[in-house]
Amino acid sequence: MRGAVRALALVLALAPGGVAPLRAQEVEGGGGASLQTFLVTMGPGADVYERFGHNAIWIRDTTSGLDLVYNYGTFDFDEPGFVGRFVFGRPRYWLDVGTIDGTLRLYAHRQRDVVVQELALSPAKRAELAIRLAENILPANRSYDYDYYRDNCSTRVRDILDLVLGGALRRTTAGVPGEGTLRFHTQRSVSNDPAMYLGILAAFGPSVDRPLDQWGEMFLPAKVQQRVRELRVPDGRGGEMPLVLREDTLLAVGAFAVESGRPDWSGPLFGAGVIIALASLTGMIRGAAGIPGRLVAGAWLLTSGIGGGILLFLWFATDHRAATGNLNLLLLSPLALAVLPGIWRRGAAGRWSRAARAGYGLLLVAGGVAALLPSLFTQQMG
Q: Is the pTM of this model over 0.90?
């Protein structure tokens, strides 16, 4: 413990903004009596990586005035190799530390709300949380392999709070049915971006359609905020008290919001599929009258072939676990590229061309059944 306190002292001494450090002796000897601990929750923003919200932990010393905001969601697009690691599902994120004033300036600029909840931790628990965060931010510990569902900025906050709370957060949420699935929460979060919405619908496999419990739902910062608000902890007198002493809104911009439910696009998508199919069938008309239909069919086959190649890449060549076992390969298949040349050829089709057409047709039929009867399968396709 003494080594951890020394680590805390080092971090505080190097804190940004020239704020006077909290001495290690005060944490160890005073038992954290001068510390306040807050869960900080930021609302959604405009960009896709902001749509899910964000959170952090704020440690404040009421004696020295020092404040530290610990943020597990730091990354840098310009870091060498970041884009490649992200594509292959292996991005590196890290824990950073700032001040509450700097945090509020940043989120005011991004037009995002900020709410803080002061936590009713004992002085010893407040000191423990401060020390654990200080250990986490040391160079050997601060970076981690980011997973957007299972190990992200919000689950890191959830886990360290649960650790300090002796597992109370997990005990009250694990196994308790949540609001939906990973796909449900993802799609309602990005419903403002149709291209992203459709991309997620296509790219994710059945693993994101399993029902979540409340513990798993806390990959979303808003869910951590909600569960912390609901949690009750021992009051030291044989009873219980709310974990949240008080809740304050530090920024109320109201510029962005996330829908409570995902939009149902199954009807429009089915209608678009029917239109594409009917238009493609007109390509069988000989002569100039069939050219529009062949163009539609060609565009779909090219889209399907390239899309299917991307789905196979995500499944077999990356660490994106959400993309494994994807039934959308029935509708988006690389086999479509083998069919594409045949729509412009005249005369009898060769054996391989006929086999490609038959195989692709069977895949489309199977994909249509899977999309229309999701209760028979493990994946939501529309």
A: no
